[in-house]
Amino acid sequence: MAIDLMKVNDMSVDENVFCILQNLRLLQLNHVKLGGGCEYLLRKLTWLCWHGFPLSSIPDGLYGENLVAIDMRYSNLRQVKNSKNLKNLSLCGCKGSTSTTLASRLRSWFLPPSPTNLLPPSFHGLDRLTTLSLRDCNLSDDALPRDLGSLRSLTNLELGRNSFRSLPASLSNLLRLTSLKLDDNERIETIPDLPRNLDALHASNCTSLERLPDISVASRMRLLNIANCPKLNEAPGLDKSKSISHIDMEGCYDISNTLKNIIHKGCFPGLVLPGNEIPALFNYKNEGATILFKLPEFDGRILSGINVCIVCSSHLEKKETKRITIKLTNHTKGLTKSFRKVAINLVKSCEDHLWQGHLSNKVFKLGSEDEVELIVDCGNTMIVKKTGVYLVFEQDEARLNSKRGLDTDDVAGSSCDNPLQTKRMRFETSQQNIEENMDVA
């Protein structure tokens, strides 16, 4: 049974309707008023979605032992009872009360914008909690329990749009955590050590953030989104990371030159950061979206790939994820290859930014003294002002990886071997999944 009546006023459901729904497993009654209570226990109910729920607590009849997921966003809910099987609870956008607290043995939370004392003093006992969302809850430093790291089953944590300046140090103890979202925390200044299995860190629009923790500790991290963090200047461990492949640093105007050089020399499939000039270390540069260059004598070196960098701007009203095409023609050998649908996050401002990606030579087989032409096509939504190419040789990678403390096996599995080949990579960004299809024509 599913009813969504968000646009209908004063719709109500009589409690007696539940007596004929004893086998109901999924119930969605968004923005529906309940006439009376609910005395009929729905024993088989496993998922309850009731946006705009009008009562301050969930009736016992809807709280059977099989209930594992509750979504009560934008409701008046103030108290949630214990349930040994509950794994997911969403209360985002609710307006809580200062006089009540949530049950301390709750298994999973999405909590509302509410005063501090809606949270329990401890997370102890929430062993089955897998998803915790405290977004837009107006939480201060003292509101978040210090034993956050005791949530041993937690895989997804969302703490965006709050008022704290720091997070509990126990964050690093969340060994199953794969996604951490801290977006829009304008007061946060520091982030503690990261969990080692973290896959994605979203910390965009953290306007007071000055420094990241050691990125290399999160040995599986692939996505780093720190866009619009204007005070951020350091990202320790980024040069030692074996796994990061996508970085968004749009609007990070204060990053150090050292960090910029680390990024530009890296083999990241895609990154965005401020800038209006192709970096000096790039071997070939040209105005516009086309560049023609002749490769040098390799002198025994092996070309592993090329880094492509463009200076671009857009006039979009909001930030959007678009696709670009990179066409590479080897005039010496008469070969042309096109990389289609490479994802790029276009900036909404007219300010210049750099986009950089890595192309593997396993596809092109570029050789010594080949004449090559590269064309970047971003469609009509973005202007490409400059293009640059940086040659990446295996010997240079070996020296760089030696400084990073990586051995041969690490390099074999690093992002340099996989970029922009026929591969599918998924990353969760904001509230949606952005799927990148990297096809070779």
From TrEMBL:
Entry coiled-coil feature ranges: none
Organism: Salix brachista
Gene3D superfamilies xrefs: Ribonuclease Inhibitor
Superkingdom of the organism of origin: Eukaryota
Keywords: Leucine-rich repeat, Repeat
Regions crossing the membrane: none
Pfam families, per the entry: C-JID (PF20160)
SUPFAM superfamilies per UniProt: L domain-like
InterPro entries to which the protein is assigned, alphabetical: C-JID (IPR045344), Disease_R_plants (IPR044974), LRR_dom_sf (IPR032675)
GO biological process: defense response
Domain C-JID, residue spans: 273-396
Name this polypeptide is given: C-JID domain-containing protein
Phylogenetic classification of the source organism: Eukaryota, Viridiplantae, Streptophyta, Embryophyta, Tracheophyta
